[in-house]
Amino acid sequence: xSTDEHKANINKNTNTDTGISISNNNKTVKKLLLVVIAMFGxxxxxxxxxxxxCDITGLNGKTNSTAxxxxxxxxxxxxxxxxxxxxxxAKGIPWAFEPVINEIxxxxxxxxxxSFYAKNNATHDIIGQAVxxxxxxxxxxxxxxxxxxxFTQQPxxxxxxxxxxxxxxxxxxxxxxxxxxxxxxxxxxITEKSS
Length: 195
What we know:
30% helix; 34% strand; 9 strands; 195 residues; alpha+beta
């Protein structure tokens, strides 16, 4: 075989390999593109799926977002449940925000009224929104808010303070192994969103 024939065979094999290589690369790129699109779609679907999962299982401590009617037909005085109150401010909201009392003992079925204190320490008006959660998460299904400042936005002028009410009861069906509930509020500045 002459040198020219040998070079022609090499070029022929190289071109064939390159064609196969380009075809394989195109397939790989298409597969990776599909994976990226699927991951992006899954990211968008994750939040609603998580909310559905939490609603079904009672996890995450989400409480009712609207008022409920007081429906307890009796009070179980043989049981006492301690309800603790915790507050925190989201980053950037210069309010003092705290419960007037840190904890209270209640009997399942008994209605209670507690207060929270807030003061706007900023030099401008702010609209706040408190977002509640209960732990353990399973207990959120048994903690019912009849009236709560968290149901509405809280506008507060610069330097002003307010006492806000929470009226609630713990359901008679609360599992007996749960002896303490913690109600936590996180306060957010929603002034720009409300404008």
